[in-house]
Amino acid sequence: MIRLILIVLLFLVSLLAVFRAPAYYLWIAAILVTGYPLIFSGAALLLTVSGFWIKAYQTFGTVLGIITFILCLSPIARAYFVGADLKKEMSSIFNAPHKTIYPPQQPFSFLKLFSAANGTQSNDITYVKYADTSLKLDYYRAGIPGKRPCVVMIHGGSWGGGNSKELPELNPVLVKSGYNVAAINYRLAPKYQSPAPVEDVKNCLKYLREHADNLNIDTTKFILIGRSAGAQIALAAAYTINDPSIIGVVDFYGPADMVWGYSIPSNPLIMDSRKVMGNYLGGSYKEVPQHYFNSSPVEFVKKTSPATLIIHGGTDVLVSPIHSDKLLAKLKKARVPAFYLYLPWGTHGFDYSLNGPGGQLSTYAVQTFINTITQP
Fold first, then answer.
1. Where is the BD-FAE-like domain (predicted)?
2. Are 108 and 79 a contacting pair, CB within 8 Å?
3. Measuring CA to CA, which of 64, 219, 257, 358 is 20 to 30 A from 310?
């Protein structure tokens, strides 16, 4: 009986690899199920095989165990399908015939699921001082000598939380690829509201330019990367600052249309998205509609906007992938080079495990994108 109960519980958890999570803690579970599929599929396999010795409810438990095993492995199978054409699809969008733009690894590797993420050291730097606060960034020097492009990493956290230390595993990967990385802190809501974080990005770029010789930065090539709320900030900065040195922007599951996003709130059992947006924008849409418009990156796409990489999961319960659909449509209309990596099984934060299916594919896409746009 205990075996059957465990299999049923694991089966219910495995459904998160296919369906959207209905509550906050189940969303966290979905990140783990899709990011570490070998652990859950291994548990399902052990419980299924134990049926040879445990006779109670043997047939039903074994059948349900096999189904659970398949569901847990499904992100791996789907990652192979997405990765199979990723190089070809990205090449066709960005017209990149040079073999050197592609990372040495495959878009997805089963063996890499067993690997651990690497770390690297950074330096804390104060990049701006305001009258009431100062902001720091974590600076990672490129693994290649000389003046190198710089990636500005902007964390998530619903505009009111988070910091530059979150999900740092991608930073050493980019450093090893030859890029400087500046992971920034920005002013948080509700004390500070839009467009304060975009102003912080602008001041960060100013600081990096002024200290480019010491930091070994090529000041003609900046790339902005943001996750979730940080993606909204990155997109807004890339499309409104009008800085030609921002040559690319990467959007990890960001809200690109704040007006539409307010009209279709997320599941309140996971997040009160309207409250979060109101804290950031100074009120509800009814109270300050212009603030929502001014903070919607889709409204500022134009033909001179920088190349854009969009990455979103199909089971995202915090930020609907429709945001990314709408952004891609605007970019195509303006004829801005853009690629959308859609991960059907991915939930919000799918890149928590950089070596998981979503983490591998997104890392490959980011490396390829940056390698391409920084070519001479």
1. 144-331
2. yes
3. 219
